[in-house]
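Protocol step 6 of 9: fold each sequence in the batch and record its structure tokens directly after the sequence line. For illustration, a two-sequence batch is reproduced in full.

Sequence one:
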Amino acid sequence: MEDSFPHDPAQALTTGCLKAEKQFLQHADSLPKHDRSGSCAIVVLVVDMEVYVANVGDSRAIMSADQGKKLFLLSRDHRPSEDYESGRIV
């Protein structure tokens, strides 16, 4: 279990994703031949009435409520043409 959970769910998700990536890369590096092109994941954590979303890579998540009458966008696409994304990667 991550030390920052449950008092800081956002940090716990961030740390958990970084640890998972590190473990994956270590495993991939131990193989004779591997593809390092990337990965993606959406992780949703619900704590009481709060919803935390970690978006790694090119993924999209939505949530519905009220028997599908309401729709909530939980992530944004990672497109280099978007200002927030080009600012992050440049």
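Sequence two, same batch, same settings:
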Amino acid sequence: MEEFVVYILFSKKYMKTYVGFTSNLIERMKSHNILGTKGYTIKYRPWIVLEVQFFGSKKEAMQIEKFYKTGKGRELIKQLIAK
């Protein structure tokens, strides 16, 4: 059974966050921090992992990712950063 991960990244240097989901977190992190050549995340490197949540289905992971991109979700992320 494939496992999906929702992750929240934080760029301390730029005080930016990024929310995504994947089935391969290690490769995805390489893409965000090293290999990627375009997109939002290359401008704010380096990224650290702020939060990781595991799910048994892609649908669940996508729902949680979508939640974190709402106002309430962003508030939760701000609370994580404050810790």
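Proceed to step 7 once all outputs are recorded. Observation for sequence two: The beta strands are 4-11, 16-22, 48-55.
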